[in-house]
Amino acid sequence: MADERVLELSGVYQHVEGRMALSDVALTVAPGEWLLVTGPNGAGKTLLARLILGLDRPSAGRIQVLGRSLDALDGEALRALRLDLGGVLQGGSLLEGVSVLENLLLPLRDRPLSRGALARAARLVMTLLNLDGLENQLPRALSLGQRRLVELARALIREPKVLVWDGFSEGLDLPAMRETLGVLSDLSRHRGLALVATDNRPEILGDAPHRVAVLARGRCLFTGTGHELEAARETSLELRAVLAGTV
Predict the structure, then answer these.
(1) How far apart are CA 29 and CA 191, in angstroms?
(2) Is the domain of 184 the same as that of 234?
(3) Where in the numbering of this chain does the ABC transporter domain appear (predicted)?
(4) What angle do CA 245, 43, 238 make, to 5 degrees?
């Protein structure tokens, strides 16, 4: 359907320690679409990522993911929905005391598969992201970039419909970023994977087709294509200041 959405936020507010951290945020994402949420530190990008993943609840407003309203879900229903979501969060979430392979198998622990089948699934996604040979390593032995890619592999192993990646460029050099964008582009094209990425840099997704949402002080100043953003930058002093990092 032309109006199909995998993600829809309307009138979302979030209060944190008595201050307004997100104010009247409205966003939509279609199957296979990429949305980059950009803005300075403290703009609310990480808060937004956590809300979309159902890790936190908004103070007000509605968040629908894959046609289901998050505020109507709790317990088992919310956990079931999260199986169709992949998340890569800043700060890391790998278990330090177990190997890369064991970390990757965690999202598959409910699958009635043999140990060999599970290991093959993990190695397939590791090969996809050029992580071969790291399966027996502990996370503390990895570089930051490798850790981020292992977290991405774990997020992708269940073939989610929506991937939320907070701090897209963190730890990745330019070649790794380009290779990763190529992998995600293929998954979007062939599986309809939708991507919501956050980053301080509005140009981080390069030439890949995507929309951009600009946050500042918890407000969404702009939503549109990269070309539309360039045009809006010329006419909005506030938007220009935010993108220049002076706000």
Answers:
(1) 15
(2) yes
(3) 7-242
(4) 50
Backbone angles phi, psi at 186, to 5 degrees: -65, -40
Tens-digit pLDDT string for the chain (247 aa): 345 899 999 999 999 988 899 999 999 999 999 999 999 998 999 999 999 999 999 999 999 999 888 888 888 888 888 888 999 998 888 999 999 999 999 888 777 778 888 888 899 999 999 999 999 999 999 999 999 999 999 999 989 999 999 999 999 998 999 999 999 999 999 999 999 999 998 888 888 889 999 999 999 999 999 889 989 988 898 998 898 875 6
What's the one-letter identity of residue 130?
N
Is there a domain that residue 129 lies in?
yes
Q: Are residues 34 and 67 in the same domain?
A: yes
179 and 64, same structural domain?
Answer: yes
**What domain range includes position 139?**
97-159
60-65, strands of its sheet edge to edge: 19-29, 7-16, 60-65, 68-69
Alpha helices in the chain (DSSP H): 45-52, 75-82, 100-105, 115-128, 144-156, 174-191, 226-235, 237-243
